[in-house]
Amino acid sequence: MTMVHAASSVLHVNEPVAMSAAACMFRSLGDPGRLAILRHLASGEHRVVDLTAHLGLAQSTVSAHLACLRDCGLVSSRPHGRASIWSLAHSAQLMELLASAERLLAATGDAVALCPTYGETALR
């Protein structure tokens, strides 16, 4: 994998390392609950209690998902009294990635959902 630098020089990247990092990022996005949290945070900052109310998930589940997303650098928090306010860390890039995923899903139709390895009925 190569990346073109702004000065038109080519920067060589260790492809196995880059692919591993990309796979790790996609695994962090591979849970419907985490994707729902990201979608809610795209509309603005939220507290855990707000996310639990909006998503119908347990507080412990939301907190665990937020910790995963924070550890992956996708969300950040700031203290607000006794609570934390959560937001997207890289909003523009993340929304661009999710929009691209939606376009790809539209192009592939039901193929991903029907995939015997990773689809909705796959044995995990």
Automatic annotation (TrEMBL):
Keywords: DNA-binding, Transcription, Transcription regulation. SMART domains: HTH_ARSR. Residues 14-109 form the HTH arsR-type domain. One of its GO terms (molecular function) is DNA binding. InterPro entries: ArsR-like_HTH, HTH_ArsR_DNA-bd_dom, Metal_resp_trans_reg, WH-like_DNA-bd_sf, WH_DNA-bd_sf. Pfam families: HTH_5. It comes from the Bacteria. PROSITE patterns: HTH_ARSR_2. This is Transcriptional regulator, ArsR family. It comes from Blastococcus aurantiacus.
